[in-house]
Amino acid sequence: MSSPDLATFVQSLPKTETHLHLEGSLPLELARRIDPVYFAQPPAYWHPDFRFTDFAQFQAQFDDYFFHWFKTPENYYESCRRVFADVVAQNGVYLEASFHLGTADVIDVPFREIAKAIRAAVPPGLEFRLFLGMFRDHYEGPRARVLDEAITWDEVAGVDLHGFERPEFQPWSRDVWARVRSLGKVTKAHAGELSPAADVWRAVDFLGVRRVQHGLGAIDDPALLRHLVELDVTLDMTPISNVKLLAVPSMARHPIKRFLDAGVRCTISTDDPMLFGNRLNDEYLALGTAGGLDRATLVKIARNGFEVADLPASTKAKHLAELDAIAAAL
Asked: CB–CB of 83/22 below 8 Å?
């Protein structure tokens, strides 16, 4: 019997997505309600050959367009309902996604209503964990008070520092991140996307995270790679995003295989689908074609997502057994 084509194979894999920004996932049909002219056609940055000139050009799309949608619980719900359904359609069964603390500045209802609306959008068959994301300089004024409250909400599974990897991690983040872990919740941080290995060192040793979003800069430091393995740190990578933001020169030169060979656990996700025109299956397809990874390695990446997922042991074992069966049939 011949093996299925790669797209069919990828669709067959039960998958996790562990690095998704909800504000960067606005569906195109909803973006058209913000600006029917600008979004009449898919934006230029959806083209496979598009590259952002710098992080500021990328961030400007949020400021100019996307944040104008995310101002009410109803709008969050409508966007998330569509995004979550698309994850399920791709055989995604577990999702970790973040919503942005900065939107609290323009929300006219208690900010917890946003978290409740997001949770209400989760469909049957999808295990979902919600993270509160923020920039590295966000712990001030009203935002600090919102953050101190939000980390106690049942709807919030953890926190993530995201956005531009400057300034360096500040003292408040270490204190808050420790407090979050004391509540039994998960802490993450973006590091090493466009910054060097030193930023990943600080995320792991200063902030104490065991979930680094991106972490690409670590590839240049063998001692850090060993450190990541010893501490069982997971790198939640987003290959298409990495290429379009020029964090790596091409998919063929993406370092994920080198990380895996070094024993570092890596997952793959979409990051900001509205900015990159990507879906979860596309990440696997890109690595399986231009990235040169074989199918066994794609299964390994899918397994990594379940190994780190916050799931009951029986549920996790079920999905891992399914992936093992797929691997055995290769």
From this structure: yes
Torsion angle in degrees (nearest 10) through CA of 33, 35, 36, 38? -140
* Torsion 267-273-220-160 (CA) sign: negative
CB 156 within 8 Å of CB 176: no
Residue 293 sits at the vertex; the CA angle it makes with 291 and 296, to the nearest 5 degrees, is 160
Say yes or no: domain 6-328 is CATH 3.20.20.140: yes
* Active-site residue, selected from the candidate residues 78, 96, 165, 193: 193
Structure-token pair, residue 72: 């009410």
Token pair 């670590």: residue: 218
**Catalytic (active site) residue 155:** no
The Cα–Cα gap between 330 and 321 comes to 15
DSSP tag of 310: -
In the numeric block, which tokens belong to residue 109? 């209802």
Q: What are the tens digits of pLDDT across the range 190-221?
A: 999 999 999 999 999 999 999 999 999 999 99
pLDDT computed for residue 1 by the predictor: 43
**Where are the domains positioned within the chain?**
6-328
Cβ proximity of 103 and 27 under 8 Å: no
Could you give the maximum distance between any two Cα atoms of the chain, in Å? 63
Q: Is the pLDDT of residue 2 over 80?
A: no
CA-nearest of 104, 130, 66, 47 to 272 is 66
Nearest-10 crossing angle of helices 313-328, 295-308 = 180
Q: pLDDT for 18-38, tens place per residue? A: 999 999 999 999 999 999 999
Amino acid identity of residue 130, one-letter, is L
pLDDT digits (tens, 9 = 90+) for 68-120: 999 999 999 999 999 999 999 999 999 999 999 999 999 999 999 999 999 99
